[in-house]
Design a protein that fits this description.
Helix 1 packs across helix 2. The chain is elongated and about 120 Å long. By secondary structure, the protein is an alpha/beta fold. It is built from five helices and 53 strands. It starts with a helix and ends in a 12-residue tail after the last strand.
């Protein structure tokens, strides 16, 4: 090869020399007076050209050699990473728990080092969690050391979800926990920005925490079974989180101080039996939280001190069979809360005590309140918006607005059917706004305004029908001549009416 290279270099040098000589000779002839060409100039120029040409060739050669070396190194690294993967997978399937633990850490380190196959490594760890797992040491299926392996995998995953800005973060990766069993697990501070599935997962005993977690991807808990304590305190929900058809048996699930911005969080068709679910001090802004078609059997769902400043909370078509739903001290402003077509059976209690309604809509349209159910707005403040019971049915339940203040807004009972039961506005102040029973039918039961104070507001029973039962204004007070109690076209059939000190409206026809 060396003789050939020398011949090539010699040929190139000769060609370069001839061309340089011709160029310099032509240039010398065009000068006046013409000068002879110096051989040294020809040699110097030729050497310079050859030097530049050689430098270019050397650069090309070095670049190509580097690429070849990098390719060899990459293939060597890939081979080494593949070997590490095989070793870690074998360790993860080992009989001894200590070896399985080593496999967990080895696979996590491999995911950090091998970005191209990071998702594969994560999939293996998630698949391990999906395998049959029995945390009870007294059970026949219990496996020695398995609980520590499970908890370690959860900790490793959580550690990779805490800092989304880190190059080794797993926040944007897919996490599939479908059907997994969790006893004690802590995902606090995690950032879920990819697709995450807890579908059909079982949360058994112990404590599972998502406190301060951020949900910015699609996260699903569909058909999951919750027991023990599961906490989402101070979590932030920005995208779609679903608990559809999930079951909450005993135990406690808390969303205290959580924020719901944009997106949708749904508990549609979920079942709550003897459990406690709380949204205390939660902030609802522009998002949507739905519990449509949910089933409540005993237990408690609490929105105490929640702030609903926009957004929607929907209980449409839900069934309450005992238990308590509370919005005590909640604040409603430009929000929508709906109970359309909901059913409240014996032992069910819904409370809005000391709640403040500034704007927005709270709707119980077409809802059914059966005997033994209770809805209370005691000490509530109505400064705007609408609370509607239009076309609802009261079959023996109790509705109480005792000590409430209606300063503005509307409370609407139009076309509502009252069959027995009690509707109480005792000690309520009507300082503004409108209370309407237009076209309502009161069939038995008690409607009481005892000790109520009528100021600037309007109370209307236009076209209402009263059959039996009792209506009382005992000890009521009218403090403003502009207040209105209107019974235009109302009909009374066997109804006992006590006007007390309130003057009988001219259009009342008992």
């Amino acid at each position: 090869m060396a003789p050939i290279a020398l011949l090539v270099v010699g040929a190139i040098g000769y060609v370069a020399y001839e061309n340089v000589e011709n160029l310099l000779t032509d240039a010398a002839r065009r000068t006046k007076p013409s000068k002879p060409v110096d051989v040294k100039d020809i040699v110097t120029t030729t050497v310079t050209i050859l030097t530049l040409f050689g430098a270019v060739l050397a650069g090309v050669y070095a670049y190509r050699k580097q690429r070849l070396d990098e390719g060899d190194a990459h293939r060597a690294d890939a081979s080494q990473l593949a070997d590490r993967y095989t070793t870690a997978a074998e360790q993860l399937g080992h009989e001894q728990a200590a070896v399985r633990l080593a496999g967990v850490y080895a696979l996590a380190r491999l995911a950090d080092d091998w970005e191209e196959q990071r998702q594969v490594c994560i999939d293996v760890l998630c698949a391990y969690l999906r395998m049959p797992y029995e945390p009870d040491p007294t059970a026949a299926q219990y496996r020695q050391g398995e609980r520590e392996v499970h908890h370690t995998i959860v900790r490793v995953i959580r550690d990779h979800l805490e800092a989304p800005w880190e190059p080794t973060a797993w926040c944007y990766n897919q996490l599939d926990f479908t059907g997994a069993t969790f006893d004690d697990a802590d995902f606090s501070g995690s950032h879920f920005r990819g697709n995450v599935s807890f579908d059909d997962a079982r949360f058994r005993g112990g404590s599972v925490a998502f406190n301060h977690a951020t949900f910015e991807g699609s996260v699903t808990f569909n058909r999951a079974a919750f027991g023990g304590a599961v906490t989402f305190n101070r979590a932030a929900f920005h995208r779609t989180v679903t608990f559809n058809r999930a079951t909450f048996h005993s135990g406690t699930v808390t969303f205290d101080d959580a924020t719901f911005d944009d997106g949708a969080t749904s508990f549609d068709n979920a079942g709550f039996r003897g459990s406690t679910v709380t949204f205390k001090r939660a902030q609802f802004r522009s998002g949507r939280v739905t519990l449509e078609n949910a089933q409540f059997h005993d237990g408690t769902v609490a929105f105490e001190n929640a702030r609903l400043h926009g957004g929607t909370v929907a209980f449409d078509n839900a069934q309450f069979n005992g238990g308590t739903l509370t919005f005590n001290n909640a604040e409603f402003n430009r929000s929508t809360v709906t109970f359309s077509n909901a059913t409240f059976n014996v032992g069910s209690t819904v409370t809005f005590n000391q709640a403040e309604f500034r704007d927005g809509t709270t709707i119980f349209n077409r809802a059914t309140f059966n005997d033994g159910s209770t809805v209370t707005f005691e000490d509530a403040r109505f400064g705007g918006g609408i609370v509607g019971f239009e076309n609802s049915t009261w079959a023996g339940g109790t509705l109480a607005f005792q000590h409430a203040v209606l300063a503005w807004g509307t409370i609407d009972f139009r076309y509502t059917l009252f069959e027995d039961g009690v509707v109480a506005f005792e000690n309520t102040r009507f300082d503004g706004g409108t209370l309407s029973f237009g076209n309502a039918l009161v069939h038995g039961g008690m409607l009481t305004f005892s000790h109520a104070v009528f100021g600037e507001g309007i109370v209307t029973f236009d076209n209402a029908g009263f059959v039996g039962g009792a209506v009382t204004f005992e000890n009521a007070t009218r403090v403003s001549p502009s207040s209105t109690v209107d019974f235009a076209n109302a009909g009374f059939h066997g109804t006992r009416i006590t006007w007390g000190p309130l003057s009988i409206p001219t259009n009342a026809q008992p």
